[in-house]
TrEMBL record:
Compartments, record wording: Mitochondrion outer membrane; Secreted
CDD domains associated with the record: PLA2c
Domain Phospholipase A2-like central, chain residue ranges per copy: 21-138
List of catalytic residues: H67, D111
Bilayer topology term: Peripheral membrane protein
Family of the protein in this entry: Belongs to the phospholipase A2 family.
Cofactor binding note: Binds 1 Ca(2+) ion per subunit.
The protein's name: Phospholipase A2
InterPro entries, alphabetized: PLA2 (IPR001211), PLA2-like_dom (IPR016090), PLA2_histidine (IPR033113), PLipase_A2_dom_sf (IPR036444)
Tree of life domain: Eukaryota
UniProt binding sites for Ca(2+): G49, G51, D68
Cofactor needs: Ca(2+)
């Protein structure tokens, strides 16, 4: 019970230290955009969620394409961006990546950049691209 109370106090104060992977990326997105990462971005456009192909539908979808590219580059370096844990802080509307290995810092940076990209492109978000059918994704994929 004391742990739950401590977590509530930390959240109320606006400071949370978080460890995670894709779940923490979802958390970052939620904190910065106010949207539910899974339902609002999980199957958005042609690049948000698992996989990605074709031309991004809008600026929001390009955020996901860039994030996929960031993860791809890290995987080539031997990092495991979808499962590797990392530390970050969210305080007063800002995300700061914490200490850790070079992979942990790089993964956090990828996630942070994508979350801010989504925040900065909230105006481009279109409900019609939510749960977008993958077979409609055509055209050239952006290069990494």
């Amino acid at each position: 019970m004391k742990i739950v109370l401590l977590l509530v106090v930390l959240i109320i104060c606006g400071l949370t230290e978080v460890q995670g992977n894709l779940l923490q990326f979802q958390n970052m997105i939620g904190k910065l955009t106010g949207k539910n990462a899974l339902t609002d971005y999980g199957f958005y456009g042609c690049h948000c969620g698992l996989g990605g192909k074709g031309t991004p539908k809008d600026a929001t979808d390009r955020c996901c394409s860039t994030h996929d590219c960031c993860y791809f580059k890290l995987e080539k370096k031997g990092c495991k961006p979808k499962t590797q844990t990392y530390n970050y802080k969210y305080q007063s509307g800002s995300i700061t990546c914490g200490s850790g290995s070079s992979c942990q810092k790089a993964i956090c940076s990828c996630d942070k950049a994508a979350a801010y990209c989504m925040k900065n492109n909230l105006r481009s978000y279109k409900v019609k691209y939510r749960n977008f059918p993958n077979f409609l994704c055509k055209g050239n994929e952006p290069r990494c």
